[in-house]
Design a protein that fits this description.
- The protein is an alpha+beta fold.
- It has four domains: 48 residues; 91 residues, Pdz3 Domain (Roll), CATH 2.30.42.10; 212 residues, 2-enoyl-CoA Hydratase, Chain A, domain 1, CATH 3.90.226; 87 residues.
- Helix content is 40%, strand content 20%.
- Strands 3, 4, 5, 6, 7 and 8 form a six-stranded antiparallel β-sheet that branches. A six-stranded mixed β-sheet has the order 10-11-12-15-16-21, with helices on both faces.
- A hairpin with a 6-residue loop joins β13 and β14.
- α1 packs antiparallel against α2, α13 packs across α16 and α16 runs antiparallel to α17.
- The longest helix is centred in the C-terminal third of the chain and has 23 residues.
- The N terminus is likely disordered.
Length: 533
C-alpha cells in the first residue's frame, strides 16, 4: 500500500516536471530531489512508513513558515470549510441544540425540507433512521454526520412533541440549505436603516440588495452598515459590495504579488446606494473583505468609519487543489486600498502565536479603550483622495471616530455564564417550557419588544439553573452585569421566537457604536467635514 501511494506521488511529481513550465533548473532539481527522497524512504526504510501522512506534515510545516494565512486543508475539511462561503450546505434544514442529552429542534430553517414536512421548534428527535440518538452522549459532529447528506437523499426521523403521546415519524428529503451572510436588516427610525453582515460569501451581494430594496420601501435615506466581527470572505464579493456605494470608475482595491501582476478593481455604474449618508461600523474582528470595503469608503471620503482599528489582514489567498481532494490556501498577493495603503499587520518570523496574540496585546496596551494609545509612525500616513484627510496603513483600518471597548457591565460571573453556555441553555429550556404561552401573548415582535420583560423571577430561575450547572451564585457579579444579562436573555428569547434579525434589534438598543452612528446622522452638520458633500 505504501509503495503504491509513493509511486502515485512520484508519477504525479514527474508529470509536474514534464508538463508544467517551471523554467528554472534549480526548481526542477528540487522537485526531482523530493521524488528521490520519497522513493528511498518508501522502498528502503527499516520500518513501514505512512508516506501520505509524512507528505501532509511536510506541506503543513512548509506553509506555516511562509505566512500566517497560507494553510493546508485536508480532504475531509475541504467541504466543511467551503460551506459558509458558498452560502449553502445539503441537509434537512434545522437549527438544533443538544439539551439534556437530547437533540432538540430550536427552529426549522424557513422554507427548508424540515419545515415543509411539519417539523416544529421544540420537537425532540429521538430516532434517526431507526437509530436511537437520545441519551447516548450525542455530539454536534454526530448530528452533522447523521442529518446532512446529498440533496435528494432521504432520512427518517421520529420526534417527541409536547402534547402528543406517540412519537411522530417524518420522512425528510434532504435539500440545499442556505447559509445566510446577512444577520439583520431593519429600520432604526423613520430614515435610518441598519444592515449587518457576518461574512462575504457568494450570496452576500444578493442578500444585501434584497435587504436594501426592502428598507428603501420603508423610506431608508441613511444607512449604517455593520461589519463588526466580520472576518471577510471572497475578494470579488467585497468589490461588489463596495460598488454599491461608490460612483463609477473609482478604484476599490488593487492586488499585487511576485507572480501576480497588479490588478485593479474599479467601481461600475451599477449600485443601489451611490447617494445617501453612509456609516460603517468596524472593530478588531473586522478583517480582509471587511477592510477592503471600509478602506475604499474611507479613501474616497464616501462615508464615516466608526469603531476600533480592524484586524489587519491584507493578504490574498488562492485555493489550489491537490490530487487527493485536499488543497492548499496559498498567499499570492497583497491588497492595497485606493490610496495605496497596505492593511496587512506585520508578522515576524511567521510566529503564529505572536501574530494571533496581537489582539491581546492591543487590550493590554490600552488600545481598545483609548485612541491615544495607538502609535503609528508618520511613514504609514496617507491622505484621502477627495478631502485630503489623514489615514493610516500598516495594520488595519483606523476609524474616523473611535469607540472604546465597553467593559462596564463585565463580571467574572457574566463571563462564566457565557463561556459555560448557561445563558443559551437556560433560554432553550425557558422557551421550550413556555413556548405556547409566549406565542399566544406575543404574536409579533413589536408587541414582544414593547411588553416582554425579564422579571426578577426569570433572573432567579437563571441563577438556580446556573447553580444546577455547577456555577455558584454571585450577587455582586449579578449586580454589575444584571442589565446586560437581561438584554441578552430577552434578545435570545426573541431569536428563538422570531429570528436573528429580532435578536440584533434588541442587543443593539444600547450599543455604544450604533448609538454614536445615530447621533452622527442626526447631527450631520457637525460631522460632514469627514466626508465629501
Amino acid at each position: 500500500m505504501i509503495h503504491r501511494i509513493a509511486s502515485t506521488l512520484i508519477i504525479g511529481l514527474l508529470t509536474l516536471i514534464s508538463f508544467q513550465s517551471i523554467g528554472q533548473n534549480a526548481s526542477n532539481m528540487a522537485i526531482y530531489k523530493t521524488v528521490r527522497f520519497l522513493q528511498f524512504v518508501s522502498a528502503d526504510y527499516v520500518d513501514t512508513v505512512d508516506v501520505d501522512k509524512m507528505v501532509e506534515e511536510v506541506i503543513q510545516e512548509t506553509l506555516k513558515n511562509l505566512d500566517p494565512h497560507s494553510v493546508y486543508i485536508s480532504k475531509e475539511d475541504v467541504r466543511a470549510m467551503n460551506e459558509p462561503l458558498e452560502g449553502n450546505f445539503e441537509g434537512i434544514g434545522v437549527e438544533f441544540n443538544i439539551l439534556n442529552d437530547t437533540l432538540m429542534v430550536v427552529n426549522p430553517v424557513p422554507g427548508g425540507p424540515s419545515e415543509r414536512v411539519g417539523i416544529f421548534a421544540g420537537d425532540r428527535i429521538i430516532y434517526i433512521d431507526e437509530k436511537n440518538v437520545a441519551g447516548i452522549g450525542l455530539k454536534n459532529s454526530d448530528v452533522f454526520k447523521l442529518l446532512r447528506g446529498d440533496k435528494g437523499t432521504q432520512v427518517t426521523v421520529q420526534v417527541m412533541r409536547k402534547g402528543v403521546e406517540e412519537l411522530i415519524e417524518f420522512s425528510i428529503t434532504r435539500d440545499r440549505i442556505p447559509i445566510h451572510s446577512l444577520d439583520a436588516a431593519y429600520m432604526i427610525d423613520s430614515k435610518i436603516g441598519y444592515i449587518k453582515l457576518n461574512r462575504f460569501s457568494l450570496t452576500t451581494e444578493d442578500e444585501f440588495i434584497e435587504a436594501l430594496t426592502d428598507l428603501k420601501k420603508k423610506n431608508l435615506q441613511d444607512l449604517v452598515l455593520d461589519l463588526r466581527g466580520n472576518g471577510g470572505g471572497y475578494l470579488n464579493t467585497s468589490v461588489a459590495l463596495a460598488d454599491q456605494f461608490l460612483n463609477e470608475d473609482k478604484l476599490i482595491v488593487y492586488t499585487e504579488g511576485r507572480s501576480a501582476p497588479k490588478t485593479d478593481f474599479n467601481s461600475t455604474a451599477n449600485g443601489d446606494f451611490k447617494k445617501g449618508r453612509l456609516i460603517i461600523l468596524i472593530d478588531e474582528g473586522s478583517a480582509s473583505a471587511s477592510e477592503i470595503v471600509s478602506g475604499a469608503i474611507q479613501d474616497w471620503d464616501r462615508g464615516i468609519i466608526i469603531g476600533r482599528r480592524s484586524f489587519g489582514k491584507g493578504l490574498v489567498q488562492n485555493q489550489l487543489p491537490l490530487p487527493d481532494g485536499s488543497m492548499i490556501r496559498l498567499t499570492v498577493a497583497r491588497y492595497h486600498t485606493p490610496t495605496g495603503r497596505v492593511i496587512q499587520k506585520p508578522y515576524k518570523n511567521n510566529d503564529l502565536e505572536e501574530y494571533y496574540n496581537d489582539l491581546n496585546e492591543r487590550y493590554t496596551k490600552g488600545e481598545l479603550f483609548d485612541a491615544d494609545s495607538i502609535s503609528i509612525p508618520d511613514s504609514l500616513k496617507y491622505f484621502t483622495l477627495v478631502k485630503n484627510k489623514v489615514v493610516y496603513g500598516g495594520g488595519g483600518i483606523m476609524p474616523d471616530i473611535f469607540i472604546p471597548f465597553d467593559t462596564t457591565f463585565y463580571s467574572d460571573y457574566y463571563g462564566k455564564l457565557i463561556r459555560m453556555g448557561i445563558i443559551n441553555q437556560f433560554v432553550h429550556t425557558y422557551v421550550d417550557k413556555n413556548r405556547s404561552q409566549l406565542n399566544k401573548s406575543y404574536s409579533n415582535f413589536r408587541k414582544f419588544d414593547q411588553k416582554f420583560q425579564i422579571t426578577n423571577e426569570i433572573m432567579d430561575e437563571l441563577v438556580t439553573f446556573a447553580e444546577n450547572s455547577k456555577l455558584p451564585s454571585d450577587p455582586e457579579g449579578l449586580k454589575t452585569s444584571g442589565d446586560e444579562i437581561r438584554k441578552q436573555l430577552k434578545a435570545l428569547i426573541a431569536q428563538s421566537l422570531f429570528s436573528t434579525n429580532q435578536y440584533f434589534q434588541i442587543v443593539n438598543q444600547n450599543n455604544m457604536a450604533l448609538q454614536k452612528a445615530i447621533e452622527v446622522l442626526h447631527n450631520w452638520e457637525s460631522y460632514k467635514h469627514l466626508v465629501k458633500e
